[in-house]
């Protein structure tokens, strides 16, 4: 059985956002080139008080930085232009009342919007 060895981070940043934490880690390939891993770690608490973390990771390589950055900026700008920067969800505003004819947004969709908005200032130019 092959053992997976994690590469040591060359550069690392952490963004704490409520129950979620985002890790931006620069690592090296076997050929000593750099790539970026972005990990979302979300804490889940069980009824008995114990907890676990669920993690999702993406790997981003230099050849994709420019297009990824362009698409990220376009998507986040679209969200901010359409909905503004204020987070609107029942979870975040207890007194929020849905207007007649307005679509209901699930917590996961609201979280995705918040998550995406947190990335509006990400720049891959420095990597």
Structure, explained:
The chain is an alpha+beta fold and 127 residues long. The protein has a single domain, classed as Nuclear Transport Factor 2, Chain: A (Roll). 27% of the residues lie in helices and 31% in strands. The protein is built from two helices and four strands. The chain has a four-stranded antiparallel beta sheet with strand order 1-2-3-4.
| Major beta sheet summary | 4 strands, antiparallel
SSE sequence, one letter per element: EEEEHH
Uncertain runs with pLDDT below 50, 5 residues or more?
A: 108-120
The largest beta-sheet arranges its strands as: 1-2-3-4
> Would you count the extended β strands for me?
4
The tally of helices reads 2
CATH architecture: Roll
**Mean model confidence by pLDDT:** 78
The coarse overall form would be flat
Please give the radius of gyration in angstroms: 18 Å
How large is the share of residues in beta strands?
25-35%
- Structural class label: alpha+beta
Q: Which CATH C-level class is it?
A: Alpha Beta
Helix residue percentage: 25-40%
CATH topology: the name is Nuclear Transport Factor 2, Chain: A
Could you give the distance between the termini? 34 Å
**How many domains is the backbone divided into?**
1
């Amino acid at each position: 059985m092959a053992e997976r060895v994690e590469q040591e981070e060359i550069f690392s940043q952490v963004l704490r956002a409520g129950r979620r934490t985002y890790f931006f880690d620069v690592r090296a390939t076997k050929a000593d080139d750099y790539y970026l891993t972005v990990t979302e770690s979300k804490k889940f608490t069980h009824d008995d008080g114990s907890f676990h973390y669920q993690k999702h990771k993406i790997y981003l390589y230099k050849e994709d930085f420019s297009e990824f950055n362009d698409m990220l900026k376009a998507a986040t700008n679209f969200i901010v232009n359409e909905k503004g920067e204020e987070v609107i969800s029942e979870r975040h505003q207890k007194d929020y009342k849905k207007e007649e004819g307005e679509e209901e947004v699930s917590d996961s969709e609201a979280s995705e919007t918040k998550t995406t908005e947190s990335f509006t200032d990400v720049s891959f130019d420095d990597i």
